Amino acid sequence: MTPFDSFAMLDWSSGNDTGPRPRRDAIWLGCVRGGAEETPRYLRNRVEAEAALVDLIETERAAGRRLFIGCDFPFGFPKRFARALTGCDNPFAVWDWLEARIEDAPRANNRFDVAGEINARFPGVGPFWFNGLKREIAGLPRRDTRAGHGLPDRRCADEGAPGSFSAWQMGGAGAVGGQVLIGLPVLNRLRRRFAGQVAVWPFEGMDAPVALVEVWPGLINRAVKRAEAGGGIRDAHQVRLMARGLARLPHARLAAMLAVEAPEAPEEGWIFGLGHEEELMRACDDTLKPPPLRNDCFALPAGVEWTPVDDALALLRDRLRAVVGQEVLPLAQAAGRVLTAPVVARRANPPEANTAVDGYGFAHDSLGEGDQVLPLASGRAAAGVPYPGAVPQGYAVRVLTGAALPEGVDTVILQEDVTLGEGRIAFRGGLKRGANTRRAGEDVAAGATVLETGRVLTPADLALCAAVGLADLPVFKRLRVAVISTGDELVEPGEPARVGQIYDANRPMLTALAQQMGYDVLDLGRVADDRAALRAALDRGAAQADVILTSGGASSGDEDHVSALLNEAGAMAEWRIALKPGRPLALGMWGGAPVFGLPGNPVAALVCTLIFARPAMAVLSGAEWREPQGFDVPAAFEKRKKPGRREYLRARIRDGRAEVFKSEGSGRISGLSWAEGLVELPDAAADIRPGDPVRYLPFASFLGG
Ligand code: AMP
Ligand code: MG
Question: Strand pairing partners for 609?
Fold first, then answer.
């Protein structure tokens, strides 16, 4: 069997149009197309749903992709039904029979009548039961009083699916009877429309480019419940997780699950994945991480002696991607997290036209020339307390800031601009129509995309998401960063230091930097210049973190064990970047985790972290690549530099001019602390005089969102 490229999961509903606002118990469609997960789509009625399915099939066919469509209702009825209804055991005879009789419109359908009509063909009471309508339907009992109809209550497959419903039950929470009656005609039309391209499982061979498969989301109930605990609509989680699970199943496993043994009554159909619940749940798990980066992801083009900074950055930007799993979090926990999907407004902001001030509202058409006097209608409109009824033309009404404009009101005058009399107000003319009001949706329209994938959520983003009706957001898990210092000379701050020893200055700095960037830090301590010890520390980092930052030992000298070990793992590139302060940076993979081997020198370690590790870690965390926001300021210093490498000077702004630290010595940690940012000097030669513009990058522009 050819593998599938795209997967869709449909959550069906037999009810009426559910309105413009996404809600549960409606129709939902989850898709993973060509490996890309999409935000579940809310489909308010079956006309929209059928159009969406047609479009999905056409798009995937046009792209040459093989498509698996899962549907959450039975494709067949318990044994003997097909023969009794149509005279043969062919399940499609039942599909045709239903399609010829079901009438379906967004606001009404005849499913209960058709159920009654079927019941009339069987002896006794049933098999269908539950009339969900006010009026009586001949032959369709309201309660389960069925007897003597002669058919089994469930299919063979349903016996192995605890919690599944009988296809005879037409209504009540979770019932599927109505969905089958209303759904099969839609699938039947798709079969005809795409004749020869669509195969229905398990009735037909699975070699057509599109497969329609009965998939029951109850199989992954635990995973859905877990996702739902983070908020959001159950049906949306169901289709999202099932589509993902199907897409992540290895092809051989999917093929094996499709190859079920011929059941006793083939016309009943079967439930895909039955008996493989745990495997499906593992496959759709929200906490699952994407596969690790490729081992050669830090390879450099051959023959380049010194790689320019911009080339090195472009390479990182190109090769890296998110390495963390995903989860759904309530707004209150989402600040600083990265969106895994675009956020779409569920509701307009403002949701309805309202008044921007305290004052009096009226129809602009009520106004004449010159000064105005309007009688007051009784009552008032306040925020959250709508005005009952309409305001007649020629009248004004009291309105308070935020109140929805009452019917008949399109313009508001500020209370400070009126004279209030006995039951009347007077004010000057000249007010524009719509003055002092806010239009519905003037800020955000319902359905508009307000935030894109990769966005690092700010406090203001959370306000926006709340205002447009979201309570929880799909985000990446926090990136875990392991920090290791290397060097025989290092001692822990606070411990006695002997001659020749220095305090480990990099670890507290790098730990704090990673924390300020919003990551979880794993402090792996100091490691002596000893290969076995370093190997053990890297192993721990790879097992417990997503990325490893080391400092020291990154060059190619005798005691440079970081580069030696990464080389040994066969996944190391010594990045000789044309950068001061820098020296070689060792970039490599260790046990699936990217390692940034930073220089030991604290000044170089900080600059390399900000310039290289910061944007790289952002991409690993799921965020978009972002340049630090710099700006040009007049220099307060003099400096000449040769061409061939970029330079970063420790700097700060005083009196609107960039000052640089008195010494460029790379061991001068005090200069790092003195500085509030970096001055970036171009790769080319430069001769800077006081007053010349130079590029200043504040430290703050590297950190946070
Ligand atoms: P290396 O890259 O290991 O050759 O180290 C370069 C310089 O940075 C040496 O002078 C080291 O002593 C110093 N150095 C390395 N690691 C640290 C550290 N964690 N804290 C302070 N200085 C360090
Ligand atoms: Mg060293």
Answer: none
